[in-house]
From TrEMBL:
PANTHER family: PTHR33989, PTS SYSTEM N,N'-DIACETYLCHITOBIOSE-SPECIFIC EIIC COMPONENT (PTHR33989:SF4). It comes from the Bacteria. This is Permease IIC component. It is a multi-pass membrane protein.
């Protein structure tokens, strides 16, 4: 009785004290805009990652042939304008969703956010000669990727030129958009830009800061005039902010946000503790009936997707190692390990129901869950078994993703398997296949091992719970038979 009361007290504490503020935060306008707005970037991330693999096929002979034929350059072009500018898609999508949720015409807000995001950054790039010069320079390569002049030779030849010409050749290239800030490095700035533009745009429309045209004017034209004042105010403010940072700080907003905010957050997420905490919180929220995957995915995507982007860039450059700065915890680590076969990594339960279960309830739900589990969907288990608020299955439900996350972090960190390559496998990609796509055959083998971990952890708990269900079903059948006999005797 005391044990039941303590469980009830703990459940009440979670439901009354912990979940309400969490759900209040999750349902705020900025977080909802972030969750739904990032979805608009996903198609470009997934399609772009396919081009990334095609341009860097992990078979040396094939990769060399692709570069020599020129096709690698075409695939790189497609990668750059899809995956490579994902922060731009995020800036547009987040502002769009924010204003759409407020009930206003949303596309102008998304375009305003895009313009603001570009306006806040310095429109120049370092001269390619600077990176090519010196002993540590890349040198000059041809279309096939072969170095035709070393960095030392480049520097020696530049030094022969007059100083004025040297300065001209090595000065930054101006009047261009630096795509570095349109990718992973600009993601946090893009999120903030999208949220702030969406908020400011909606507030001005709500207060009537708009040009209203006669009813006879077509709505397609009138809507653009409606957007003119809010967009103009936002862009003017953004220009003044850019001018202030440029004049007094010799920098821009995106560089400052990356240095002070994004770099520490990426470091925090890409740690052993970060992996374990994320892995624990997903099933924790689910256990109390709240969509843990949606909550944690929305909160962490802005940090983990840049980690994915950084790994993709290293993979593209042939430098995908921990020593070269590759991340362990990426968005694919979250999708394809922490949530493998569904939140809680419940494949072990599926296997138990198919080979060892005796209760009708376990067998029936197991048959229903088998196919969805192949595509990382386990709602039939969560609500049908159920796992939600079920103390018999709480320990393996919490423990399995934590053990998988911790062990996966360690085998990548210590070089047993390579870091994830940046390929954005859709979260519904079946296990083992997804492992091969995101990290090659070694990762596929490791993913198989994690599935065996799930089986080993769930089996003893599922066996005990199955015995309880079997006894309940037997007692119910006996009671019904007794009631039937009594009725017949009458």
């Amino acid at each position: 009785m005391d044990n039941t009361q303590s469980k009830s007290a703990f459940s009440n504490f979670i439901n009354n004290k912990i979940l309400p503020p969490v759900m209040k935060f999750v349902n705020t306008k900025p977080v909802k805009a972030l969750q739904d707005g990032m979805v608009y970037a996903l198609p470009f991330i997934i399609i772009g990652s396919v081009f990334l693999i095609l341009s860097n096929i992990p078979i040396p002979a094939v990769a060399a042939a692709m570069k020599a034929s020129g096709w690698a350059a075409f695939f790189n072009q497609a990668y750059t304008v899809t995956f490579g500018i994902m922060a731009l898609w995020a800036a547009v999508g987040i502002a769009y969703v924010y204003v759409r949720n407020e009930g206003y015409e949303a596309l102008p807000a998304g375009l305003t956010s895009m313009a603001t995001f570009l306006l806040l950054q310095t429109l120049n790039i370092a001269n390619p000669l600077v990176g090519a010069m010196g002993k540590a320079g890349t040198g000059i390569t041809n279309a096939a990727g072969k170095t035709v002049m070393s960095g030392t030779a480049v520097a020696a030849n530049i030094d022969k030129l007059p100083h004025a010409l040297q300065g001209f050749l090595t000065s930054p290239v101006t009047g261009v958009i630096n795509i570095t800030w349109l990718g992973g490095q600009g993601m946090i700035a893009a999120i903030l830009c999208g949220i702030l533009v969406g908020w400011a745009y909606s507030a001005m429309i709500r207060k009537g800061w708009k040009i209203t045209l006669p009813e006879q004017v077509p709505s397609s034209v009138a809507n653009q005039f409606t957007a003119m004042i809010p967009a103009g105010v936002i862009l003017i403010v953004a220009m003044l902010i850019y001018a202030a940072f440029s004049a007094f700080g010799n920098t821009d907003v995106l560089q400052l946000i990356y240095k002070l905010l994004q770099t520490p957050l990426q470091g925090l997420s890409d740690s052993f503790g970060g992996a374990v905490i994320i892995a624990f919180l997903v099933p924790f929220f689910w256990f109390f009936g709240v969509h843990g995957g949606l909550i944690m995915g929305g909160i962490t995507s802005g940090i983990l997707i840049p980690n994915t982007f950084d790994n993709a860039a290293l993979y593209k450059a042939g430098k995908l190692t921990i020593a070269q700065g590759a991340h362990v915890v990426t968005n694919e680590f979250y999708n394809n390990f922490i949530n493998l076969t569904g939140s809680g990594i419940t494949l072990g339960l599926v296997v138990f129901t198919l080979v060892a279960a005796h209760s009708v309830q376990f067998k029936t739900i197991g048959k229903i869950e088998f196919v969805p589990a192949l595509f990382n969907i386990n709602e039939p288990f969560l609500f049908g078994l159920p796992i939600v608020m079920n103390p018999f299955l709480a320990i393996p439900f919490f423990l399995t993703p934590v053990i998988v996350a911790a062990s996966t972090y360690l085998v990548i960190r210590f070089g047993i398997v390579p870091p994830l390559n940046g390929f954005a496998a859709p979260w519904t990609t079946p296990a083992i296949i997804s492992g091969f796509l995101i990290g090659g055959w070694k990762m596929a083998i490791w993913q198989t091992i994690t599935l065996l971990m799930s089986v080993g952890i769930y089996f003893p708990f599922a066996k005990k719970y199955d015995a309880i269900l079997t006894k309940q079903e037997h007692d119910k059948a006996v009671a019904e038979a007794a009631a039937g006999n009594a009725e017949a005797a009458k």
